[in-house]
Design goal:
Blueprint (H helix, E strand, L loop, with lengths): L8 H12 L5 E13 L3 E13 L5 E4 L8 E3 L5 E7 L2 E8 L4 E16 L13 H10 L9 E9 L2 E8 L5 E6 L6 H17 L5 E6 L4 H9 L3 E4 L2 H4 L20
Parallel strand pairs: 10-11, 11-12
Antiparallel strand pairs: 1-2, 1-7, 2-3, 3-4, 5-6, 6-7, 8-9, 9-10
Helix pairs in contact: 3-4
Length: 258
């Protein structure tokens, strides 16, 4: 095997291991490279310092020094990834049989090569959406009113799905439209259509409440004109930002006096 240009002995061994254990581990390469894509379209990426990630399922992502979007990528299962040493360069080559497309990433210098036996079976949990807020209000109706008793969640109407439907202690119908952000005039008109639907189709008088983070004077004018109510709910207090939580472990925990 030819040695890669300017590659220290330790990193040379990592590259050799990479070639031997390709597709068995998670691989991270940082170095100077070019990239060539040949297929239905063609592209050429001139030399630059970039980070290449190859995941255990052969998902491939090439990142530059700026921006969120990858410069080149390949989805898992699109094609086999091969690692070669050619003309003192490490070549990462993929071929997609289905589309007959080839991607080559050619490293003339490697600053760091790392192989991880990574294990991760967890899935991302996202909370704090508008739907989550509606679910929370359904479970904690006292936030809307101490006498509010919800009876339905995501109630279907010809104008969309109403977030909450319920009654007060006297059995009078209440409908609630929930917005996580600040309310807009369109939100007020949407609630107005829901109220009109119940009054016209079900022949009942209902109380309409719009829940939102904030209400402008323009929105309040629409609500008042149609006998609708506004309720400010600070969703940040219900779903606090994780970034604002104090870490349970700090750097001080790792620094000990001799």
């Amino acid at each position: 095997m030819k040695r890669t240009k300017n590659l220290p002995e330790k990193q040379q061994k990592l590259v050799e291991k990479l070639l031997d254990e390709a597709c068995k581990k998670m691989i991270v390469l940082f170095g100077s490279c070019t990239a060539i894509f040949d297929g239905r379209i063609k592209s050429f990426l001139p030399k630059g310092d970039r980070m290449l990630f190859v995941k255990k399922d052969e998902t491939l992502i090439l990142h530059g020094s700026k921006g969120l979007k990858p410069l080149n990528w390949q989805l898992s299962g699109a094609g086999k990834i091969n690692y070669l040493i050619e003309d003192e360069k490490l070549v990462v080559r993929t071929y997609r049989p289905k589309t007959k497309e080839t991607l080559e990433i050619l490293f003339d210098e490697i600053y760091q090569a790392t192989i991880y036996d990574a294990h991760d079976s967890a899935s991302l949990s996202i909370y704090g959406s508008e739907s989550d807020l509606s679910d929370y209000l359904f479970s904690h109706p006292e936030i809307i009113d101490k006498n509010f008793q919800p009876t339905a969640r995501e109630f279907e109407t010809p104008f969309g799905f109403l977030d909450l439907r319920g009654v007060d202690k006297s059995g009078n119908p209440i409908i609630v439209e929930v917005k996580k952000r600040g309310a807009t005039p369109a939100d007020a008109h949407q609630l107005k259509r829901y109220v009109e639907y119940f009054e016209e189709v079900e022949k009942i008088k209902v109380q309409g409440i719009l829940v939102a983070q904030s209400f402008s004077s323009k929105v309040m004018n629409v609500l008042r004109a149609n006998n609708l109510e506004a309720l400010e709910v600070p969703w940040q207090e219900i779903f606090p930002s994780l970034a604002n939580e104090k870490p349970k472990v700090t750097m001080d925990d790792y620094i000990k006096d001799d």
